[in-house]
Amino acid sequence: MYVGIDVGTSMVKAAAFDESGRELAVETRPVRLSLHDGFVEQDMEEVYAAVVGVLSALTAVVPGPVELAGLTGQGDGVWLVDDEGRPVRAAASWMDGRAHELVDQWLADGTFETVFRRTGSAMFPGCPGPLLAWLDRYEPAALDAAATALYCKDMVFQRLTGIRATDVSDASMPFLDPRTRRYDNRVVELLGLTHRRGLLAPVSDPLATGQARGEGLPSGTPLANGPYDLPACALGAGVTAPGDGLLIVGTCLASLVGTTDLDLSGEPAGLYISTDRAGYWLRAMPAMVGTAALDWVLSTTGVRHDEVDGLLAETPPGAHGVRVLPYFAPSGERAPFVEPRLRAELTGVCLESTKADLVRATCEGIGFAARHCLEAAGLTGSLAVCGGGTRSPAWMQLLADVLGRPLRVIEGEVGARGAVLAAAERHGVALDADAWTRPARVVRPDAGRAAHYAKAYEDHLAHLHGARTRARR
C-alpha cells in the first residue's frame, strides 16, 4: 500500500491507497487551535502525536507492507524547533494576526510591493516573514533558542526521519526567488531578518526523502517531504496543465491555477507557488476563510451541518436580499487583495429573514469570493474542486451556478493522494496519475441561475469596494 499523510489545521489525516489509487482506509485525529487577542497557535507536540497516532492506527487496520509514504500539511506560520526538531514555543498558525501592524507598515513604505515584485509573494500577517519579524522584536529569546523556523510538514518530517529540510513550495512564501529557486537574501534584509537568516530551513530541490525511524510508520519506510497542502491537492486533483484550476473549499478557500508565465506585475496579492517542475508554477489566491465562515454562521444560529442542503432549498438565489461578505479571519484578507483590517459584513437582514437566508447568503458570499480569486489567478481551462465543502451536493450546485462553469468534484483525501503521487514521482515509482485523479462527478451550472449570479457578482464587487475603503480609515 501507499500512505499519504496530511497535517491539516484542525485535522490530521493518514490515508492508505492501493496501486490503482483506490482509497483503502483513512484515519483522522483532531488538533486544537488556541485563539486569543489575534494570536492563533498550535501545540506542536499535540500535532506530532496526532500524526503518529493516525499512522499507527492506519497500519494496524490495513495489513501489509508500506511501499511508500508521502507527507503534506498546512503552509505558512512559524514552527520553531531545536536541533532535534522539538518545539521551543507553540507554533504560530497561518491564521495568526499578531503581525498585522508590520504588514500595514510594509504596505505603506513600499516594502510589501518590493517583496512581491522579487518573489511573487504577497505577504500577510500569518506568513513567516511578518511572524519572524514580530518574534524578533517581541520574543527574541524564542528565536535565540531555535535551530530552525520550519513549516508544519517539515517539523513532522524532521521528527519522523531526522532530516532538516523544506521544499520549494513551502519556501515560496515569502523568501524564495521563483526564478532561481533559492532564498532571496535581499528580501530577508528588507524584512530586517539578515541576522536570523540561519533559521531558514535548507530548500531541498527536488523533494527531500528519508526513511522512517519507526514512529507511526515501520522503520525504513521511504518517506518524501512535500509539497504542502495546496500544491499537493492540485496534484491529487490532476491539475497539472497551464490554465487549469483547483478550488479547495476547506478551512481556507484556496484557488490555484497552473501557469508557465511568471507575471509579477499587477496588484500584489496571493503568491506564485514553485513546484517540482522548473518553469511551472501554481498561481495561488488562498483566501483566508472558506468553510470556517459557514461554520461560524452555523454555530451562531444553532444549525447543524447536515441541515445545510435542506436550508439551501428553502430560500431562492439572492437569499431575499441578505448578503454576506465572508471575511471572518482576524488577520483580514490576503487574496485576491491584501487588507489586514477587513472584516466580515452581514447586510440586508430584517425581522423576516430566516436561518435559511443567512446560510444561503454565506454560501453565496463564499462563492463570490472564490470567483474573484479564480479570475485574478487567470483560470482559462477546466476547474476541479475538493475539500470538506464537496460533501454538500446543494452547495456544489450553488458554486457551479455562481462560478458559471462545470466543476470536476474530487472526493476523498485529495491532499494525501497528491502527497503519494509526489513521493512516487520522486522515487521513480510508476503510478497511473489519470486513474488516481479521476473525478467522482461533474456538476454543471444552471443557465438561468448562472445569469442571476453574474449580476449578483458585480454587486458583490461593489459592496466589497466599499468595505475595503472603510477598512482603511
Please describe what this structure looks like.
With 473 residues, the chain is α+β, with helices and mostly antiparallel strands. The protein has two domains: 2-231, ATPase, nucleotide binding domain (Nucleotidyltransferase, domain 5); 287-409 and 443-471, Nucleotidyltransferase, domain 5. It contains 16 helices and 24 strands. Strands 18-19-17-16-22-23-24 form a seven-stranded mixed β-sheet, with helices on both faces. A hairpin with a 3-residue loop joins strand 16 and strand 17 (253-259). The termini are far apart.
Question: Can you summarize this structure?
Answer:
This protein is 37% helix and 21% strand. It is α+β, with helices and mostly antiparallel strands and 473 residues long. A seven-stranded mixed β-sheet has the order 18-19-17-16-22-23-24, with helices on both faces. The protein has a six-stranded mixed β-sheet with strand order 3-2-1-6-15-14, with helices on both faces.
Brief descriptors of the model:
single chain, FGGY_N, transferase, Nucleotidyltransferase, domain 5, alpha+beta, kinase, kinase activity, seven-stranded mixed sheet
Looking across the biggest beta sheet, what order are the strands in?
18-19-17-16-22-23-24
The proportion of strand residues reads: 15-25%
Instruction: Tell me the span between the first and last alpha carbons.
Output: 56 Å
Overall geometry comes to globular
CATH class identity of the largest domain: Alpha Beta
Number of distinct beta strands: 24
Oligomer: single chain
Count of helix runs: 16
Q: Can you tell me the CATH superfamily of the largest domain?
A: ATPase, nucleotide binding domain
User: Which consecutive residue ranges, at least 5 long each, have pLDDT under 50?
Assistant: none
Q: Work out the helicity level.
A: 25-40%
- Give the helix/strand class: alpha+beta
What's the alpha carbon Rg, rounded to whole Å? 21 Å
When the domains are counted, the total is 2
CATH fold-level name of the largest domain:
Nucleotidyltransferase, domain 5
At CATH level 2, the architecture of the largest domain is 2-Layer Sandwich
Question: In this structure, how is the largest beta sheet organized?
Answer: 7 strands, mixed
In round numbers, the mean pLDDT is: 96
Organism: Streptomyces siamensis
Pfam families: FGGY_C (PF02782), FGGY_N (PF00370)
Domain Carbohydrate kinase FGGY C-terminal: 271-424
Family: Belongs to the FGGY kinase family.
